[in-house]
Specification:
Elements: H1 2-21, E1 38-42, H2 48-60, E2 65-66, E3 77-82, E4 86-94, E5 100-114, E6 120-132, H3 138-166
Parallel strand pairs: 1-2, 1-3
Antiparallel strand pairs: 3-5, 4-5, 5-6
Helix pairs in contact: 2-3
């Protein structure tokens, strides 16, 4: 019995050392860079859905944010400017009748951020999803498309927050 517990302890120690040695660490809530405590989100009408997703995700990560800058937070505010979003689709396959069967949705995001220390970054990226179209179920497919777009915006908002947090 004692021998088994020693082996187990040695095995646990080995696994811990290997995972720590390779750089693995548990992810915690997203945090802003040192010296930043508030994110001001500036967007136009074309990016309103993305702006809502970004603000909602910042609430999830407990990051103070809003559309207007706070005078009390002026020295520690990151200004995030969202550019117009872009949605494209690429044909992937067709039915034997020639109707489109499957698309790849391409959601393009561009933004810039200004940190309290004056550093500015501009980034762009794409979120991709495959979407199967069925002309016999138009109503259901339009609802599914709206859900997929919402999911893509949430993923884009998460990615924006990660980029802001890493200050890349």
């Amino acid at each position: 019995m004692i021998r088994l517990s020693r082996i187990g302890l040695i095995l646990l120690l080995a696994v811990t050392l290997v995972t720590a040695g390779c750089g693995f660490h548990l992810r915690s809530a997203q945090t802003l860079p040192v010296g930043s405590s508030y994110v001001q989100v500036i967007a136009g009408k074309q990016t309103a859905p993305l702006e809502k997703s970004v603000l909602a995700q910042m609430q999830v990560y407990q990051i103070s944010s809003g559309k207007a800058g706070l005078e009390s937070e002026a020295a520690s505010t990151i200004t995030l400017r969202l550019q117009p979003e872009k949605l494209d689709r690429r044909l992937l396959s067709v039915f034997a009748t020639g109707q489109v069967a499957e698309y790849e949705l391409i959601y393009g995001v561009r933004f810039s951020a200004t940190y309290p220390d004056g550093q500015q970054i501009s980034k762009q990226f794409e979120v991709l999803r495959e979407y199967q179209d069925d002309p016999r179920q138009v109503l259901a497919k339009s609802r599914e498309l709206n859900l997929v777009l919402s999911e893509m915006r949430t993923e884009a908002a998460d990615r924006i927050i990660r980029i802001l947090s890493s200050k890349q």
